[in-house]
Amino acid sequence: MLSRSLTVLARMTVTFLVIVTLVFFATRMTGNPVDFVVGEGLTSEDRALLIRYFELDGSWWAQYRAFLRGFIDGNFGLSFIERRPVAEIVAARIWPSLQLLLSAMALTLVVALPLGILAAIRRDHWTGSAAMAVAFLGYAVPNFVLAVFLILVFAYWLNWLPVVGNATALHFILPTVTLAAGLIAALTRFTRNAMLDVLGQDYMRTARAKGLPERRVILHHGLRNAGITILSVIGLQVAGLAAAGSVVVESIFAWPGIGDLLVRSAIRRDYPVLQFGVIAVAAAVIVINAAVDLAYAWADPRLRRGTLA
Amino acid sequence: MTALAAPRAPGALARLWAEADAVQRAALVLALILLALALLAPLVAPFDPNAQSLLARMRPPAGFERARPGHWLGTDELGRDILSRCLFALRLTLGLALAGAVIGLVLGGTLGLIAGLLGGRVEAAVMGAVDAQIAVPFTLIALFVLVLFGNTLPVLVIVLGLYGWEQYARIVRAETRKLMAMPFIEAARAAGAGPVRIARVHLMPNLVSPLVVQFTLSLSGIVLLESTLSFLGLGVQPPTATLGAMVGVGRDYMPNAPWIVIAPAVTILLVTFAVQILGDWLRDRADPRLRPR
Amino acid sequence: MRRMLQGTALALGLAALTGPAAAQEITVVVANMSGYLDPARDHSNVGSQFYFNLFDPLIHRDYAKLEPEWLPGLAVSWQQTSPTTMELTLREGVQFHTGATMTADDVIFSLNRMFQADFPPYQVRQRDRLANFDRAEKIDDRTIRVHTKRPETLFETLLNLQQLFIVPEAYVKSLAGDPNALEHDDYEAFGQKPVGTGPYRLAEFVPGQMVVYERFEGFWGVPAPLAKATVRHVPEVASRLTALRTGEAHIATNIPPDQLAAIEADPGLKAESAQTALFHMMIMNVNHPKMQDARIRRALTLAIDRDLLNEALWLGKAEIPASHTLREFGPLYMPELKTFRYDPEEAKRLLAEAGYDGFEIVYDHFPNYYTNEVLAAQAIMEMWAAVGINGRLNQQPAWTGGKPEMMVRTWSNPMYFADPAGQFGVMWAPGGPAQSEGRFNTDEAYAAAWERFRFSADLADRKAAYAELMARIEADPPFLPLWRPYESWAMRQGVNWKPQPGHIPYVLDFRAGAITLDAMN
Questions:
Q1: Which member of C248, C433, C437 has the closest CB to residue A164?
Q2: 3-state SS string over C332-348?
Q3: Which DSSP state fits C429?
């Protein structure tokens, strides 16, 4: 277990460095930010002036070194547009995103696990198909269409729920449902398939033969083993979500989250914010994945025994 | 979809049909209809999908007040025929989604298989790339690529093809390793079977099930991604119609002209429905443990 | 039913907006929000929304009127003492939001930081609109003089600019580094914590998300009508409209004309619309190898039926300018110039004459920035096709106007101040932005005409020179003004606000006289 943890740690570090470097050079390739930050129609003289002012006149290599220095002295620079420290800008966006992410994950688990199990054990019954149909709907429509639809029904016409920002618990309902819809669909399918995989296994038959109640067989033996697959999917989904899957939802509900920040920074070429934001998200995802990896190893006895290549 | 659903022999079609339940039959028929409509779009569409009629914008579907004769699903924000645009959009969207999903499958599947079979440094490199890909928002990667190389159709296909490759790689590599640890593989190895033979005989059949599920998921995922890119203004260039572009533009008109969004949204729904039901069905059929039931 | 639900289900979040105590508070949802609030460096259509509530210029105008009528601002009187000198008497007892009293030194500091700018973002603004100013000089505690390099006919107009709003010197210096010295970081920090003399102070600013104004009790003029105004960024149209319906917001900006019917159909809502003082433009690169022939570019403009587009996309309510001119320009408004028109036959003839071989002409545009931009772009492609022009759209969220391969693209030319020099003059000056980006050329004759138009003391001469410039533009066009857009703001019944004709575009003016609230329901 220890050697696996070390391997995971090493992998995390390498991944992180690769991303840091890629992000830096990718941003430099997409155009000079001055044209976006200051607006159109600059004279060439003024343009040169501002390029110097934003310290974009050095070579890429010099800029890269200055950028790496940020990791040592903690100074990641100022936003080109907001002119305040990028760490401050990104930090303010993380908590609202995380709140939305957690509430969407909670809803997803509560809905998707029972639906998936139901769909698996009632595979030949209409309830199984119905469970899949419910799950399917969430994955069948672009989430912004769903979001606007929910807004029109529950806010515009019925006037039950608010739509702007994250001030109260009520504000969470529509964005959470929108965000969870796609996740529920994915997780239900994976749960169903993972359950189907284990339902046919020998140990299930053994458990039944031992006279254990069906409920216990499914929940304890079935779900425990299917859990390995499900866990990996949750890991991927959390990552996908934290990684700007929520851009659309944040934009529509004026949610002050990080996905919205990243896309806007990318479009406006606010490199310092973009770099730090991507790196912050990447770091979070890497940590989550490492945790899932370790949990995965813990959950799968064969891997626990240390057959890691 | 034909590639997946096509029976190996004429007789197989009848057997397939006999085995299917009502929902699966409906999905199969739907898939065939959608495919036919996509292929025949230029023949069946009543109007040129890009022909504008600036003074007859946002007319509702037939049967509603102010409807324009001949435009069964109404007209869009530039007075174009929504039915015709939907048909051409279906054609292009299906093409994009299939191309993207196949590229992702081939790319990710190959890398995952290599990583799982060979292990060691190769595996570390592939999984490092997978980790990096997972950790960086795909929307941003798409944004970079589209901004850098221009949002033209070929670039869009490549971006859509990159979507989900890491999921195939992860799945294939995980399944491969799970199977490699199983006694019968060790036995096969001991009996002198090479990696290629092990992959062909022992791994492929076991990989079909998770891959088919992932393929159908990413097929729908790509349709949705394309619409998200349109939402961000990075989809296909106007006036080209894709289902994503139609809903992306139409969302602003939902309060006053909902039919602009409804037609393409329902088409997306039908496509994803058919793909996923067929995907589940194929998966169940491919799963040897479930076949006897 | 709706009211009851609002009272219960929404009690948590929305009670503050619906209760009687809130009669002086409003929430505004805007399509775009600034990342910083510094009126001196900013000239965007986004920023212009926010400054007027916080700051004052030396010379105000009656913003309810289209024709300039100058009113005392932080100066109570002024007199031009020579063609290059203006002497101003300052108002006494003016307080900044920090509580400090405004002095002549604050005024001199505010003006000279722009006239003699050494902060690069200020230098840019200095060059494009304040270039004729030389310096400001203190005469005594109540009197200052402003000197220009060449005779100036637009003193009042320029001293009214947001770039010359008055800020507190000591406060600016205290913001970063040495509290008594002026550093560039002070200006950077000011953009996050701006302080002025206006009727509202900035209670909270979350860049890109939210601006909160609170009434400033120490304001020198008529007190602010609102105790508090919260401005929130809500990019989606459907969300902005819904926020009005749920009562979360009272005013929503940037409502496309296509949504107006839905608002009018709702008894609880209304819309205020106006032709905003800017042009949406189609600009053309005169130096693109395939576009150097003026006949090609003339054909591109002649093929576009702007009246039909107005009818179809703007409910017929935008203005189609015959030339690059606005009624705000007063005596310099010259609608008699017929610089641009629709003539498809002439377009075909010019194309044939120029030997146009059907090469592709790429039309760059933003995905969703200017109202109706994407719709117009697609319609224009059809109109081009009708005369045989092979157009292709290139939609991307990037400014391409400085690239040599750019052929045609969208742009806007706002009125920065009410004079042709404040609109056409900012962008199309010799050596100005358009020429500097390499897509427009000028020669000595053009420069001479431009000088006369900008600086001549004789009105007739200015007009004649402007007509000359427009004739050159017509013969060898680098742009086509598509229209003066018809922009709309939606609001709840009971909110009485509308855009004032005397402002530059998009100002959200919440001063006394500009907004009142009926008892909210």
A1: C248
A2: HCCCCCCCCCCCHHHHH
A3: S
- Return the CA Rg of chain A: 24
Q: Is the CB of B78 inside 8 Å of chain C's CB atoms?
A: yes
Query: By the 8 A CB rule, do B216 and B207 touch?
Result: no
Which pTM does this prediction carry? 0.86
Q: For chain C, what is the mean pLDDT? A: 91
C301 CB-near residues (< 8 Å, 6+ apart) = C282, C340, C477, C480
Residue A151 has φ and ψ, to the nearest 5°, of -60, -45
Residues in chain B: 293
Minimal CA–CA distance to C344: which of C398, C306, C294? C306
Of A23, A148, A307, the CB nearest to B254: A148
Question: And the tokens for C295?
Answer: 């006949």
Beta carbons within 10 angstroms of residue A242's beta carbon: 22
Query: What average pLDDT does this structure show over C13-19?
Result: 42
**What is the rounded CA–CA span in Å between residue C512 and residue C221?**
9
Cβ neighbours for A163, distance < 8 A, ≥ 6 positions apart: A151, A155, A171, A174, A253, A254, C239, C242, C243, C246, C248
Asked if B283's CB is within 8 angstroms of A240's CB, the reply is: no
Per residue in C231-268, pLDDT (tens digit) is 999 998 989 999 999 999 999 999 999 999 889 999 99
What pLDDT band is residue A163 in, cutting at 50, 70 and 90?
confident
Domains in chain B: boundaries: 23-40+71-290
Ramachandran assignment for B119, one of left (phi > 0), alpha (psi -120 to 50 degrees), beta (any other): left
Q: Give the minimum alpha-carbon distance from C25 to chain B in angstroms, rounded to a whole number.
A: 28
Q: What is the CA radius of gyration of chain C?
A: 24
Half-sphere exposure of B178 (CA within 13 A, CB side): 15
Indicate yes or no: CB of C236 within 8 angstroms of CB of A49: no
ipTM above 0.90, yes or no: no
**B45: helix, coil or strand?**
coil
Residue A149 lies inside a defined structural domain of this protein: yes
B52 in contact with chain C, both atoms CB, cutoff 8 A: yes
Distance from the C97 Cα atom to the nearest Cα atom in chain A, whole angstroms: 22
Query: Quick check: is A18 in a domain?
Result: no
Cross-chain residue pair A196–B210, CB shorter than 8 Å: no
CATH of the domain at A223: 1.10.3720.10
Nearest to A239 among B124, B134, B140 (CB): B134
How do residues A255-280 score in pLDDT, each as one tens digit? 888 888 888 887 777 888 888 888 88
Mean pLDDT for all residues in chain B: 84
- Chain A residues within 8 A of B290 when measuring between CB atoms: 196, 200
Segments forming the whole domain that contains residue A116: 93-305
- Neighboring chain C residues of A252 at a CB cutoff of 8 Å: 235-236, 238-239
* Structural domain includes residue A29: no
Q: B279: nearest CA in chain A? A: A189
In B, which residues are within 8 Å of C309 by CB distance?
A: 54
Give me the amino acid identity at C465: A
Whether chain B has a CB inside 8 Å of the CB on C386: the answer is no
b/e code A173-199 from CB counts within 10 Å (16+ = b): bbbbbbbbbbbbbbbbbbbbbbbbbbb
Segment of B6-15, B159-168, C101-110, C254-263 carrying the highest mean pLDDT:
C101-110
Among A18, A123, A190, beta carbon nearest to B132: A18
CATH of domain B23-40+71-290: 1.10.3720.10
* A256 in any annotated domain: yes
